[in-house]
Amino acid sequence: MKLQGKVAIVTGADSGIGQAIATLFAKEGADVCIGYHTDLDGAQETGRRVEQAGQKAVIVQGNVGDPADVAKLFERAAELGTVDILVNNAGKGMGGTPVAELDDAMLEQVLRTDLMAPLFCCRAFIQLREKQGGKGRILTISSVAQHLPTPGSAPYGMAKAGIGSLTRSLAVELAEHRINVNNIAPGLIETPMTQERIDDPEKRDAAFKEIPWHRAGRPEEIAGLALFLVSDDADYVTGQTWTMDGGLTMNWGGA
């Protein structure tokens, strides 16, 4: 098993990509701290899957856009042992609102969840790992929106692009501590956030037309890449954004 004896925090682990990552990490030997915001049932299901894999689970409710809740998350994770892996997966989507029509509350919520929250979690993780003498893995799940124009969702794309910059900066900053920092930018993945679009035949066909693979990705596919990036197999990999999108970014605007 690739993560035997490790402890991982996965934020937004109550469904979709986060749930798939937590489940796979447990199957590979990690105990998992499951962070969630509102979906207790989903978080408990993730906990059941982790325990079914023979590992320990701790479930923590909170808003990772709030530094106080991040501190609580790490305090609870310590019940499993010293945290080795941080996966920043929690996020908030948006769409259909031009910049001129954005209200301050919406802007604050998107940027705090999609940009500041990963930074808050990284800061707590770095402080913890430095006390342990270094090492560890940071992985953030962003979006192909960090590479593409996002009309109607400018703050979302702006936040995701910021994650790419944060990944590069931290990779250099933390290299001396041997803390690897990487990022996955998924395309269209079958999750609760995208289910309405996938279930609507017209929206689905329009989306699939832009994707050379002509399908949505599965959370388990993202989890497989996440496992590689936090394992010893990827020790020489840091500061990178790994795009997993069925070719969408290669085909953008070309259809």
Mean pLDDT: 95
Number of domains: 1
Radius of gyration: 17 Å
How many helical stretches?
9
Q: Say what the CATH topology is.
A: Rossmann fold
- Spatial strand sequence of the major β-sheet: 3-2-1-4-5-6-7
Subunit arrangement of the protein: single chain
CATH class: Alpha Beta
Query: What is the tally of beta strands?
Result: 7
Assign the CATH architecture.
Answer: 3-Layer(aba) Sandwich
SS-derived structural category: alpha/beta
Which helices and strands occur, and which strands form pairs?
Elements lengths: L6 E4 L5 H12 L3 E6 L3 H13 L4 E5 L5 H11 L7 E4 L15 H28 L4 E6 L12 H20 L5 E8 L8 H5 L1 H10 L8 H12 L10 E4 L3 H4 L4
Main features:
255 residues; alpha/beta; Rossmann fold; 9 helices; 7 strands; globular
Give a verbal description of the structure.
The chain is globular. The chain has one domain (7-191, 220-243): NAD(P)-binding Rossmann-like Domain (Rossmann fold, 3-Layer(aba) Sandwich), CATH 3.40.50.720. It is α/β, with parallel strands linked by helices and 255 residues long. Helix content is 45%, strand content 15%. It has helices at 16-27, 40-52, 67-77, 104-131, 154-173, 195-199, 201-210, 219-230, 248-251, and strands spanning 7-10, 31-36, 57-61, 85-88, 136-141, 179-186, 241-244. A 7-stranded parallel sheet has the order 3-2-1-4-5-6-7, with helices on both faces. The mean pLDDT is 95.
Short description:
With 255 residues, the protein is of the alpha/beta class.
